[in-house]
TrEMBL record:
Belongs to the lyase 1 family. Adenylosuccinate lyase subfamily. It is an enzyme of class 4 (lyase). This is Adenylosuccinate lyase. It comes from Furfurilactobacillus siliginis. Pfam families: ADSL_C (PF10397), Lyase_1 (PF00206). GO terms for molecular function: (S)-2-(5-amino-1-(5-phospho-D-ribosyl)imidazole-4-carboxamido) succinate lyase (fumarate-forming) activity; N6-(1,2-dicarboxyethyl)AMP AMP-lyase (fumarate-forming) activity. The gene is purB. InterPro entries: AdenyloSucc_lyase_C, Fumarase/histidase_N, Fumarate_lyase_CS, Fumarate_lyase_fam, Fumarate_lyase_N, L-Aspartase-like, Pur_lyase. Its EC number is 4.3.2.2. GO terms for cellular component: cytosol.
Amino acid sequence: MIDRYARPEMRAIWAPENKLQQWFEVELAACQAWANQGKIPQADVNAIKANAVIDVDRMEAIEAETHHDVVAFTRMLSESLGDERKWVHYGLTSTDVVDTAQALQLKAANELLLEDLKTLRATVAQQAKRYKATVMMGRTHGIQAEPMSFGLKLARWVAELDRDIERFKQVQAEMAVGELSGAVGTFANIPPQVEADVCALLGLTPAVISSQVLPRDLHANYLSTLALIATSLENFATEIRGLQRTELHEVAEPFSVGQKGSSAMPHKHNPIGAENITGLARVIRGHMMTAFEDVALWHERDISHSSAERIILPDTTELLDYMLTRFNRIIANLNIDEARMKANIEASGGLVFSQQVLLTLVDTGLSREEAYDHVQQLAQQAMDTGSKFKDLVADDTWIKARLTAEQISAAFDVQRHLKYVDEIFARVGIV
């Protein structure tokens, strides 16, 4: 991952030094579990804990010769130990260490991501409440439909984030799993109790069954959930991009003093943050596909998944952490042009109230078809001539014979579109 899209907190979790530290934590926990079984003297475990030195450069030098990272790691550790070195990696195979340590890294990464999600949810909910009564155009197919509230649009995002959070919590628990079952997963050289003790020490749950590696459908499901969260952000970002277009200009990303929108056109204020979110969501969905392809390994184990996961797990968690944090800043500082929202409603000359005119006529006893056809004719006349639909309705003899002036006026009341907003907010859980 390039530094541009990685925050220090998440980058530290995937740093080589921390990866090796987590490998050591697994090795140390395994020694302690063996000591609990009476296999290893507690004094030797204490010596390993006190004396082991992690030296990234030295490990890389050994790996250049062995072409095996875990062998290089255990030999690097042994160089700083005495006779107790014989217990390092006792009964284990490489993936016992790598997969379990990776679970620790993911556990730390997931704590950050969950906090990011909760923070964004709170920010969107706060803005939803702030703009609960701010009337704007609702659009379908990109065309003006009927008025709504901007807060209601944001409330939909809150509900989507709630679903994202629940899905994330599920995979967060699924990924907090370790395995130390030895070669091909038979526990032939390491008893299940050692695995249980190690996982307890590390705050993980033992895998129900493993084949030297954790089953990769777990990782595929995890990446799928992260990709769906990224896609939610893209969904929200796309809306901001659409509403910031010059022709609408109802919302806009914050634009700081000294910021430049274009190298050529000084007037430009572009939705670069939302576009950034959109592009990175595409990357994460690509990683999701790689995770799905990692599920099918040969027999009990191969390492075709390993090279891919060195990229997709750090990069996806780093990208999503960045995206959630950046989008939170965008939402918290979003510029809302309420006057432009009102003007865009009025620009239709009342056309967006056609359904209420239709329903008011139906309430008088007319058939829906007859009422629809007449209202549509007036709407088409307004669009063809540039006349205001509201004036055409108010002056139409056929309508005036059926509706009072008060009924016509009520049909064009924008506030009626907000009458259930409080109830909808309560259903979403925005209080």
